[in-house]
Design brief:
Layout lengths: L1 E2 L4 H14 L3 H4 L4 E3 L4 H9 L6 E3 L2 H4 L15 E5 L11 E4 L2 E6 L2 E5 L14 E7 L5 E8 L9 E2 L5 E2 L2 E2 L6 H13 L15 E3 L1 H9 L5
Parallel strand pairs: 1-2, 2-3, 9-13
Antiparallel strand pairs: 4-7, 5-6, 6-7, 8-9, 8-10, 11-12
């Protein structure tokens, strides 16, 4: 049994209690593994509090230096594209709520949108794009997260590009000098984030179309 988030001490004790209460010996012999940004201090604390954990899966803290910037990424399925003939009993209506998902017909294919509804771990449905909106001086106004097929106002900069498809690189990678120029330009667009002595907030919002889709799936109110 693997636990990868939440209160690991409480959850491990609760899982152990449930497994041990089952009469089947196989359940009582089931081991518990935990993961999720573990380091030596967290593991020490769990052991000192007698957490019934048999093994610890440590990834990020082994492969990176924590004093360097780290972005934790988790894969979440947001949509499935299937042939129209394989859509079983989905309605031919343009958009229809069906068993907790939304399906729409596009170019004889069916896009089935998916989102996770778990408390504090919910996701927004559908492939997405991030549009960087700038003023006439080239200063960032906000980033708008939208569905991938949405278009934004003229002059906005789409940030997400397809680099790898089916295991192959589909876009030429830039030279280091080009990457450096791009990085410096992005910093110049965000002068309000340079102050290090106070909390800074990055302006991010969701498109209306994405919010409407999330409401149809019951992800947001």
């Amino acid at each position: 049994m693997r636990i990868d988030s939440g209160d690991l001490l409480y959850l491990s004790k609760k899982v152990r209690e449930i497994l041990d209460a089952v009469g089947n010996t196989d359940y009582r012999n089931t081991e518990i593994m935990v993961s999720g940004d573990l380091n030596e201090s967290i593991i020490k604390g769990l052991l000192e509090n007698k957490a019934p954990i048999d093994s610890f899966a440590v990834g990020t803290e082994l492969s990176t230096s924590r004093d360097s910037s780290v972005i934790n990424c988790v894969y979440k399925l947001v949509a499935i594209r299937v042939q129209e003939k394989d859509k079983s009993d989905l309605s031919s209506e343009n958009i229809k709520l069906h068993s907790g998902i939304i399906a729409s017909d596009i170019d004889r294919m069916v896009i089935i949108y998916k989102a996770k509804k778990s408390l504090s771990k919910h996701t927004l449905p559908g492939p997405k794009q991030i549009h960087r909106i700038m003023d006439n001086k080239g200063i960032l106004v906000e980033d708008i997260i939208s569905l991938a097929d949405e278009s934004m106002e003229e002059g906005s900069l789409p940030l997400l590009e397809k680099i790898i498809e089916n295991g192959s690189i589909v876009k030429s990678l830039p030279q280091l000098s080009v990457i450096q120029k791009y990085y410096k330009r992005q910093i110049q667009m965000m002068p309000f984030l340079i102050k290090k002595d106070q909390e800074q907030r990055f302006p991010v919002s969701y498109s209306q179309k994405l919010v409407r889709l999330a409401k149809k799936l019951g992800i947001v109110d």
